[in-house]
Amino acid sequence: MNAGEWKEKLSAIRDSFSVSIAKKPADNPEALELRFLGRKGELALLLRDLKDIPLEERKPLGALGNTAKQEMEAKLAELKGAAPAAGPAAAPGLDLTLPGTPFPKGSLHPLTHVMNRLAEAFLKLGFTMSDGPLVEDDYHNFEALNFPPFHPARDMQDTFYVDAKDAAGKFMLLRTHTSPVQIRSMEKTEPPIRVFHTGRVFRSEAVDASHSFAFHQIEGLYVDKGVSMADLKWTADAFMKDLFGSGVKTRFNPSYFPFVEPGAEVDMSCVFCKTGAGRCPVCKGTGWLELMGAGMVHPNVLKGCKYDPEKWSGFAFGGGIERFAMLLYGISDMRMLYENDLRVLKQVQ
Ligand code: DAH
Fold first, then answer.
1. pLDDT tens digits for 285-333?
2. Domain range for residue 136?
3. 293 C-alpha to center of ligand 1: Å?
4. Using CA of residue 117, residue 120, residue 121, residue 123, what is the dihedral sign?
5. Are residues 170 and 60 in the same domain?
6. Residues with Cβ < 8 Å from 176, sequence gap 6 or more?
7. Which of 140, 141, 177 to mutate to test the pocket of ligand 1 (most atoms within 8 A of CB)?
8. Where are the beta strands (DSSP E) in the chain?
9. Are residues 135 and 263 in the same domain?
10. Ligand 1: distance of its center to the CA of 227 in Å?
């Protein structure tokens, strides 16, 4: 082989190396190394052929051969470094040892949290969950609860009427309280019964720090043989302690609701000032917070649901969920619960 032939061969080897290395996907770099630079590789063999070329011509050819070798080594090293053997892990600039980027996670609304906590408290006491519609008829929202037509007690609950009539020809309405669920539960179940319900209610009220046209209530009902006011007192006390801690006390004040007799308001000792001494803005210095309405189920209500009041007696209670949420989370304005301000919502996880 003369010098010219040798040069041509070198250039052919370089060309075929360039073609191999530019392939997409590239050939395996180890195989290329073996093929071109290995002991019996194309370039190695060519370099060995130099010995047949006269000494004076050999030197510049040797230099050319070495440059080609270095270039090939560099290209192969590059290819090895970028070898995507493990998929995206090898993408340039991606460091899998860095911690991941956190993404925002949703959480339950504070009111949902409270409803879940209330549900847990009542499930523990052996109550089961019940349900009823948001659009009610006059019978379940009022009449069956011993509010006769035109009775002034109806005025306690400013009602949204709906432009649709029920089977009795009366306007349907958005339920003003969760008490109709008592009726619906008794209609479905033979006594004894022990149920609770949490859900939304509606009243035509101006919105302020403690009022809203849509809010939430919890309702409970227990009818059995020989149920007394003492059972109601114990249950209310156990449930308040479950929610606010064993240090709280409860007391009853006489009150009027048409569907209970006797009726009571359930107060809890103030969880903020604890004593009632001083000027606590939450209990207004009385030491007590009014939390629920309650009482012994009125015989008319039992009779209407075909429960014999001579045989069965029971208690019922109901209260506002927003009020519980405000006390549990120290929220002073009810509107904060509806505005969906993440700064507020994020504080309850
Ligand atoms: N439903 C009543 C209201 O919204 C609250 C209430 C009072 C519920 C006494 C009861 C009860 O179950 O026994 O004002």
1. 899 999 999 999 999 999 999 999 999 999 999 999 999 999 999 898 9
2. 110-345
3. 5
4. positive
5. no
6. 141, 157, 158, 159, 201, 202, 203
7. 177
8. 128-129, 135-136, 161-165, 171-174, 193-202, 214-224, 250-255, 260-269, 288-297, 313-320
9. yes
10. 18
Indicate whether residue 132 lines ligand 1 (CB < 6 A).
no
For tokens 């809203």, the residue is: 212
Domain membership flag for residue 137: yes
Last residue of a domain, one of 90, 121, 146: 90
Residue 104 inside a domain? The answer is no
* pLDDT, tens only, 219-262: 999 999 999 999 999 999 999 999 999 999 999 999 999 999 99
CA 146 to centroid of ligand 1, rounded, Å = 12
Q: Does residue 25 fall inside a structural domain?
A: yes
Give me the residues of the chain with pLDDT under 70, please. 82-91
Cα-to-centroid distance, 127 and ligand 1 (Å) = 18
Same domain (yes/no): 193, 282: yes
CB 257 near ligand 1, within 6 Å: yes
| Whole-number pLDDT of residue 2 | 86
List the CATH number of the domain containing 231: 3.30.930.10
Whether residues 172 and 69 fall in one domain: no
Q: Model pTM greater than 0.85?
A: no
Please identify, by atom number, the ligand 1 atom nearest to the C-alpha of residue 177: 4
Task: List the strands of the sheet with 313-320, edge to edge.
Answer: 128-129, 193-202, 214-224, 313-320, 288-297, 260-269, 250-255
**Statement to judge: residues 216 and 148 lie in one domain:** yes
Residue that terminates a domain, selected from 26, 56, 90:
90
Cβ–ligand 1 distance for 318 under 6 Å, the answer: yes
Total count of domains within the chain: 2
Residue 186 and residue 236 in one domain:
yes
Residues 27 and 175 occupy one common structural domain: no
User: Are 86 and 136 in the same domain?
Assistant: no
180 φ, ψ (degrees, to nearest 5): -55, -20
Distance 35 CA to ligand 1 centre (A): 90
pLDDT at residue 233 in the model: 97
Distance, CA 222 to ligand 1 centroid (Å)? Answer: 14
Of ligand 1's listed atoms, the one at least distance from the Cα of 259 is 13
